[in-house]
Amino acid sequence: MAIAREPTLSPRGRRGVRALLALLLVAWLAAGIAGLTVYVHRYWLYRGFPPPVTPAGVPQGTVREVHFYSQALGQERKYLIYLPPGYAAQAAAGRRFPVMYLLHAPPGRPDGFLQAGALGVDSNVLLYRHQIRPVIFVIPYGHSGTYGNDTEWANAAAGPYENFVLDVMRNVDRRFATIANRQGRGLAGLSEGGYGALNIGIHHPGEFSVLEGWSGYQRADPIRAIFGINPATLSRNSPSLTLGAAAAKLRRAHTYVWFYSGTGDHFLEQNTAFAAELHRYRIPHHYFVVHGGHNWGIWRGNASRALIAMSRRLHGA
Prior knowledge:
single chain; 8-stranded mixed β-sheet; 11 helices
């Protein structure tokens, strides 16, 4: 009986099969890498949260990127600005708006407040529910381009970034319908930005009436690339050490400090001690501890509270 043989491929056919398999493998790897890239990018934007979306029927504010020349840094810089719903018509009618300045942390993105923090959506919703009044908020781009993009928002070796924040403030007052005095300005930030908000606010009690620290700290981090080797520079930029000398001016200016820390935050002890010092110097404040660490979980979870606290204290808000 004849035995049927399985058909065999020619050498050329085998090479073709191998080429096809190689192409399929490359395509599979490319798809995987593309998917991973998209996942990483989305995670970097939203930090594991769904993209923030304003509910249907809720009026939305607008976000713009503004370029300007910073005298302090001697270069063109930029900031993000959120304008509440109806801003243009109300500004044209003569209304002025209070401003909340927000300082980010390195190597974070300035738009992290809007993407991972959902601050724009929160503002839209709170306005719609009449829980806050219209507030502009401004997010300076604080990256230095060196020192790992770290600046501590201080006038130090990385550059005069404290003065840069004041440049941003003056530019905003010139270009937008703001309440251009301390009663209409608040300064807030998360992590390093929370430290920066307290440090700058204590140095300039005549500029901001509300200071907020979201998981910030009160002692300058001894980073030589930022502060150099002079201990006086560290002391001058440590709110826990400068509070006493500035206390009388802060009381006269009716400065209000609102801040919090997580139960698992390594800066918890500093924050609790700073609250005790604010009480000692009779500076109005509200301090609380929330469950969590040092991450977007508590920053996003408390963003609405921060907006409400700021809105209630700013003149005209």
